[in-house]
Automatic annotation (TrEMBL):
Protein name: Addiction module component
InterPro entries in the record: CHP02574_addiction_mod
Top-level division of the source organism's lineage: Bacteria
Taxonomic path: Bacteria, Pseudomonadati, Pseudomonadota, Gammaproteobacteria, Oceanospirillales
Organism the protein comes from: Marinomonas sp. (strain MWYL1)
Pfam family, one: Unstab_antitox
Amino acid sequence: MIDTKKIAELPFDGQIELMEAVMSALSQNQAEFDSPKWHLQELEARTHELNETEKWRSFEEVRERLKS
């Protein structure tokens, strides 16, 4: 198991390099893994929200609401 304390001790650029190495390793094996069910459910929910144009608000409306 990886000691996360050692990761925390790495300089920031070392942490980024480690993350890139992990992502590269994962992407080489991506065909072996299925996305979790919740991921598809979330994508479907967001797609549904995008199609509900009656709920869309202009930037000005949102800005005014946030000010109040």
